Each structure stands twice: as structure tokens, then as C-alpha cells.
């Protein structure tokens, strides 16, 4: 009897698995993925989420069309069923009606504050108490927990400035349209460097007791069945289990930060 060596058996197993997944997981059209053009998530045709999309295509066997879209438009199209997956989505129960979330990484949001703000006004309470200080955000984003409450407060007090995307929002910060925003290291490190203002901000944590925000695939409930969503969850779990997600993260983060970003 012919021997099947371990490597060959693994390749054969993955091939069979991909064919089985492909038969069951793909909608009748190419899977339309909305990428998040923000820092190292997606930039210049590459980034963490571009690599994630490539790996998902390889493992599911589905044809993938990945396009960067503004957050607000991406979620609108997801709700309407005109986009199938939004990458780097923050889990949001308000979107449960039309989206199914599959978390794949995590990072802490911090507050990036322009150096023009006096240090004594960089605490949550002191910033909130000064109506002259404004806050910035990408239109259509959410953060979870107390940060969403803060966003709502800034909106009520007419102190919220919105931009279409993360590069645009950091340009607004540089031009002093507002004085602070929430971001994760994967976003702010690159955006600050691109804007030439890495030495012009302070980074503080206004919500130190809250857990890191999970980033997820937000998948259209209109375009995937419950059985397909279960299958995609298994695909993402396989990418966690075999270290693929950690290897992708390690290309853009230090080894220590990549380990922290992996959801166990």
C-alpha cells in the first residue's frame, strides 16, 4: 500500500476541506468584502484585512471582491444586503438585526489628544468640562461601552466633528478642527506618521477598566444562511487555531503586541 506522508496528508486534508467548505459557504455571487482604510488595517492595497480577505478566499474557496469603503457606507450596504462582509467591525448589538459578528482580533482604544490641549485638561472629566474642546470620529463608527456613551454626549453637546475616513480625521486633528479622538495602535501609529504629527499628541486611556475592543467580520444575515455563518465561524476559528491570524498580525505588530491582539 502506498504510504501517505504527513505533509501530503495535511495538504490533501486541507484541499478536501476547502472543497467541502466551498460547496456550502459561498453565496451565488462573489463575496463582497468592505475593507477599512484605517492605519494598518488597509492601506495601498495591503494590510491586515487585505491579508485576512485573501486567506478567507483560500480557505472557503469562494470568489472574493474586496474594496475599501467608508464606514458609514459599508454598514449601510451591509444592512441593505449589497455588501456581504465588513472587515474590522466592532461588535455592536444594535447591528445584530442585520449582521452576524465573528471576532478575529482585539486591541485597546485609547484617546489621542493634540498637544495644544493643556496637560491638566487631558483627563476625561477636565476635557468634558471645557465646551471649547471638540472630539473627532469617523462617521459610522462605534467603540463599545463607555466610549459610545462619550460619543453620544459629544454629539448632544454639538462638540462632535465627523470625517469620512481615518486619514481624513487625522488631517482634521492636525488642522485643529477638534482636539481628541479614539483610536487603536494599528490606526494611530501609521496615521500620525503619515500626517507628520507623531510628536504632536499625547496618548491616554480614559477607560482603563474596559476590555480591548474585538474586531470582527460583520456578515450579512440577508446573504448568508445560519448554516453558512456557522461554517464561516469554523473557518475563522481554524485560522486562530493554526496560528495564521497571529502570523498576519506579526507582520504589522511587535511579537508581544501580536500576541495580545489574538483572541484566544
Describe the structure.
- 42% of the residues lie in helices and 20% in strands.
- It has 264 residues and is of the alpha/beta class.
- The protein folds into two domains: 6-107 and 213-261, D-Maltodextrin-Binding Protein, domain 2; 110-204, Periplasmic binding protein-like II (D-Maltodextrin-Binding Protein, domain 2), CATH 3.40.190.10.
- The strands form two sheets. The chain has a five-stranded mixed β-sheet, sandwiched between helices.
Key words describing this protein structure:
alpha/beta, D-Maltodextrin-Binding Protein, domain 2, five-stranded mixed β-sheet, 42% helix, signal, Solute-binding protein family 3/N-terminal domain-containing protein, Solute-binding_3/MltF_N
Fraction in beta strands: 15-25%
Helix fraction by DSSP (H/I, runs of at least 4): 40-55%
CATH level-two architecture of the largest domain: 3-Layer(aba) Sandwich
Q: Give helix and strand order, one letter per element, not per position.
A: HEHEHEEEHEHEHEHEEHHH
How would you write the strand order of the largest sheet?
Answer: 2-1-3-10-4
- Overall outline: globular
User: How many individual β-strands?
Assistant: 10
Within CATH, the superfamily of the largest domain carries the name Periplasmic binding protein-like II
Cα end-to-end separation: 41 Å
For the residues shown, what is the average pLDDT?
91
Low-confidence stretches: 1-5, 7-22
Largest sheet: 5 strands, mixed
Structural class determined from secondary elements: alpha/beta
Please tell me the total number of domains: 2
Radius of gyration, rounded? Answer: 20 Å
Q: Would you state the CATH class of the largest domain?
A: Alpha Beta
Number of helices: 10
CATH topology of the largest domain: D-Maltodextrin-Binding Protein, domain 2
Amino acid at each position: 500500500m502506498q504510504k501517505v506522508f504527513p505533509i501530503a496528508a495535511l495538504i490533501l486534508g486541507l484541499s478536501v476541506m476547502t472543497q467541502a467548505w466551498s460547496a456550502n459557504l459561498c453565496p451565488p455571487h462573489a463575496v463582497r468584502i468592505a475593507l477599512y482604510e484605517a492605519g494598518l488595517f488597509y492601506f495601498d492595497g495591503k494590510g491586515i484585512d487585505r491579508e485576512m480577505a485573501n486567506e478567507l478566499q483560500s480557505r472557503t474557496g469562494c470568489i472574493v471582491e474586496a474594496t475599501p469603503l467608508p464606514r458609514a457606507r459599508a454598514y449601510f450596504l451591509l444592512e441593505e444586503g449589497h455588501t456581504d462582509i465588513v472587515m474590522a467591525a466592532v461588535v455592536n448589538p444594535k447591528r445584530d438585526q442585520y449582521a452576524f459578528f465573528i471576532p478575529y482580533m482585539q486591541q485597546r482604544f485609547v484617546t489621542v489628544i493634540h498637544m495644544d490641549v493643556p496637560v491638566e485638561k487631558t483627563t476625561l472629566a477636565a476635557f468634558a468640562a471645557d465646551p471649547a474642546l471638540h472630539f473627532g470620529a469617523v462617521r459610522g463608527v462605534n467603540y463599545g461601552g463607555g466610549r459610545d456613551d462619550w460619543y453620544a454626549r459629544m454629539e448632544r453637546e454639538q462638540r462632535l466633528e465627523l470625517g469620512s475616513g481615518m486619514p481624513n480625521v487625522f488631517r482634521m486633528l492636525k488642522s485643529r478642527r477638534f482636539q481628541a479622538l479614539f483610536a487603536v495602535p494599528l490606526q494611530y501609529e501609521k496615521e500620525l506618521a503619515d500626517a507628520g504629527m507623531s510628536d504632536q499628541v499625547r496618548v491616554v486611556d480614559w477607560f482603563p477598566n474596559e476590555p480591548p475592543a474585538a474586531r470582527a467580520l460583520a456578515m450579512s444575515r440577508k446573504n448568508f444562511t445560519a448554516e453558512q455563518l456557522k461554517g464561516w465561524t469554523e473557518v475563522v476559528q481554524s485560522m486562530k487555531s493554526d496560528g495564521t491570524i497571529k502570523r498576519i498580525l506579526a507582520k504589522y505588530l511587535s511579537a508581544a503586541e501580536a500576541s495580545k491582539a489574538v483572541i484566544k
